[in-house]
Amino acid sequence: MSKKILVVEDQEDNRRILRDLLTSRGYEIIEVTDGLAGIEAAKNERIDLILMDIQLPTIDGYEATRRIKSEPETAGVTIIAVTSYALSGDKQKALEAGCDDYVAKPYSPRELLAKIEQYLG
C-alpha cells in the first residue's frame, strides 16, 4: 500500500512540481491550498506525512501545524515545512510550531525525497 502525503501549498506551480515528484515515486497525494483545509484533510484522511507551506491563505502553516499537532489523532503525523521563508530563525520558528523538519525553497528534489523517505522508511 502506498504512503499518503498531504501537500498544503497555495501556489499551483509548486503543487505541480511536488505532484510530479511524489507520484513518480509511487506516493499517493492529497492537495489543499490553505491552512484550514490542511487541518481538515489531516483529520479526515489517513495521512502518513504532510508537506506544509508556511505562507498560506486563511491561517499560516505555523498555526495549521500547531493545530494538527494538538489533536491526539494527528499529533504523530510527520510535518515537513517546505517554504521560501529562509531567513535566520525561520527554521527554528517552524520547529517550535511543531514541524518535524524544514526544507527551504528552492530545494533539491533529491534532498526533499531523501527527507521524505527518512521519515516514511
Task: Please give a structural write-up.
The chain is an alpha/beta fold and 121 residues long. It has a single domain (4-120), classed as Response regulator (Rossmann fold, 3-Layer(aba) Sandwich), CATH 3.40.50. Helices cover 43% and strands 20% of the residues. It has helices at 12-23, 35-44, 61-70, 90-97, 109-120; strands at 4-8, 28-32, 49-52, 78-83, 101-104. Helix 2 packs parallel to helix 3 (61-70). The chain is globular, with a radius of gyration of 13 Å. The model has no long low-confidence stretch (mean pLDDT 94).
Strand sequence of the main sheet, in spatial order?
2-1-3-4-5
Low-confidence stretches: none
Which superfamily, in CATH terms, is the homologous superfamily? Response regulator
Taking Cα atoms only, what radius of gyration do you get, to the nearest Å? 13 Å
Average pLDDT metric: 94
What is the class in the CATH system?
Answer: Alpha Beta
CATH topology category name:
Rossmann fold
CATH architecture: 3-Layer(aba) Sandwich
For the secondary structure, the number of strands is 5
Helix count?
A: 5
Give the DSSP E fraction (strand runs of 2 or more residues). 15-25%
How would you spell out the order of helices and strands? EHEHEHEHEH
Largest sheet: 5 strands, parallel
Please estimate the helix content. Answer: 40-55%
**Total individual domains:** 1
How would you describe the shape?
A: globular
